[in-house]
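## retry 2 of 3
previous attempt timed out at serialization; input unchanged, resubmitting
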Amino acid sequence: MSYSKDFPDILDYCIKIFDENMDILTEIEYSLGSELDDNLTPIVNKIELIDMAHEVSESVRLRKAESSFMQRHIEQDSN
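## retry succeeded, writing output
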């Protein structure tokens, strides 16, 4: 019976720890994802360079949006 009484407290404690470390976890996730995307490809002309710059910019925006979405979702669930 004490297990069922302690479970909400344990869960609240875990959520609190997770919330406190969300930024660190997001940075780790971003770093791991960046390492997977670090493939070198030769640039033949200016147009390819511009295209690659747009792709990198879009990728960064998407990752930030995903992280923000997950953080809002977790905050919403904890409330």
